[in-house]
Amino acid sequence: MLSQTVGYAIAALGHLSRYQQRLGAQFVRDIAKATGIPPAYLAKIVHTLARKGFLTTQRGTSGGVSLARPAEQVTLLEICEVFDDPIVQKRCMLGTAACSEERNCPAHCFWTEERERVSEFLRRTTLKSIAQFEEAKVAPIPENPKR
Known about the structure:
Shape: elongated
CATH topology of the domain at 4-84 and 126-137: Arc Repressor Mutant, subunit A
Order of helices and strands: HHHEEHHH
Mean pLDDT: 87
Radius of gyration: 18 Å
Strand content: 5-15%
Largest sheet: 2 strands, antiparallel
Strand order of the largest sheet: 1-2
Number of strands: 2
């Protein structure tokens, strides 16, 4: 399972991906409202994503947040790496510090293979996939959004 921070980042980026072409930049408060993410928490996530080059930000009444790269070029694995999610860390599943290829714990082979399967899924899945999923389950995009 991904951390809450990564889940929120994916939800916010998926929202931006879905709406960006038609609506342009979005305010953090609007993204927070649409995704159910606490606004202060989302502001910190957005700040980190902007620093790492995933988002561009513009202050002011005509400003907002937008994707810095096309959605089909941003993988979930990259987002996990930005926030150093536990899934991208090569930790022992059982928490054994001495677990390695030379001295492995009882779960080592299972967890090594499972972690690689999850990583491959995250590597293949893009923000475009998230936006398409969201598009299929929610109402159509409004024509004239209120800011």
